[in-house]
Amino acid sequence: MLLDKKKKASAEIPTSSLADIAFLLLIFFLVTTTIDTDKGIQLVLPEKGQEVKVRSQNIANILINESGLIMMDEQQIDLNAIRERVNEMIRQNENIIFSVKTMRGTKYEIYIDVLDQLKQANAKRISIAEPEG
Amino acid sequence: MKFKMKSKIGTEIPQASMPDIVFMLLIFFMVSTVFKESEGLNVILPDAKKIEKLKGKRDIATIWADRAGNISIDDKLVDIGQIRNLVYTKVADPLHPMKLVSLRVDRDVDMGVVTDIHEELRAVGATALNVNYSTRTAAD
Fold it and tell me: Which segments of chain A does DSSP mark as H helices, in order?
């Protein structure tokens, strides 16, 4: 018996397009990846019923009405002047608590602006009061 | 004058390792891509300067409130009264207890809505709740 020498035909898959496929996948991920950072002003809301008695001389009342007028301790104050004023008040009394009270019609943007000013002045004690109206 | 013939030796940068580099980059992106959980509402956030980045992306619930008065959590429109239960479920979750609520409120929304949300969040209350008012960075 003649043993036939079997010739194995070697088959090679062309891999030249591998780099192309890799590039395409890479471009897909580069394009669809978004870096989602949530950032903002952070506060801690106290639980209901946790009202602490504070001496009224340690409280600075900030009121914001519906048209965006800001009053601090019965005096009208400009938004950008809040930071300086708050700095002064903290220097005079470091236990001072800033209570921010808005009305239901006040714009959220003004509220955030006031909070931003307070945070810029490094006010550590900020309290959010229940609004009127 | 003699003109010298300059012989140019052709040099080719070996490109054999190109697919390797590409695969590395690809694997990096495949591993680091995280899909967004919810789309949220169309909201224009207010600006602020003194903002802090939120630590960690997990254990955060997001409440969206847009100008039209819609409030949504996890891409579902909710009523004010439903907020406290939904948030309580998240806080009480044994696997991933929620630690922070991120409020993404449009800048033109009235404080009435925000106050209602505050009250609902306080009513959840076992402990004090960390709240983040989402803002964009204000240009100086």
Answer: 18-32, 82-92, 108-120
